[in-house]
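PROTOCOL LOG
Step 1. Enter all chains and additional molecules of the complex.
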Amino acid sequence: DAGVIQSPRHEVTEMGQEVTLRCKPISGHDYLFWYRQTMMRGLELLIYFNNNVPIDDSGMPEDRFSAKMPNASFSTLKIQPSEPRDSAVYFCASSFEETGEWGSYEQYFGPGTRLTVT
Amino acid sequence: TQLLEQSPQFLSIQEGENLTVYCNSSSVFSSLQWYRQEPGEGPVLLVTVVTGGEVKKLKRLTFQFGDARKDSSLHITAAQPGDTGLYLCAGAASGTYKYIFGTGTRLKVLA
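Step 2. Run joint prediction.
Step 3. Record the structure below.
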């Protein structure tokens, strides 16, 4: 299996531009998570989906951020308009619901997209 | 808001030394995980603990979940340069698939 695939790996854009990050989860996984990692705030959960449906988006910073999952094999995180404070590494992770122990599942992380907004 | 504080924040040790990293919270978690992250990569799961007082071992790594399920520790015996990385704990409250990540411990093991 190729693991979680994210694109692009690096993105540099100017303030005010639209940015779209892409993620392909592991086949068969029914949960997809978007995280943001910075030195100041660590790894923060932005939103997660179950069976392509957004379950919890309470971590999305503001209306400039939006995420979609049109099918089981693709998700996007869009920032419009982008701002310098959005600069961070954005991770996508996927997992599948395991029977037995509640909440005990492994998240498989992608390599991340390093976003720089100038 | 649930918070997971990790200590120490940074740790630099010599090869062969032992070390312990702590993960503390005022909240109760139904499960707690430890991840290791290397530069330029995403975190990789090391272990999941779900029972208060549970101890799990992974080669030279020993993980313990606190009796009250509010804290956890990671002990590394005879550290090696390959153990270098960012160690993250992550906890999930009962009834949720939402994991909250800790502040992280950045470990460097010198040869």
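Step 4. Note key features.
Chain A has a mean pLDDT of 92.
Chain A touches chain B through 25 residues (CB under 8 Å).
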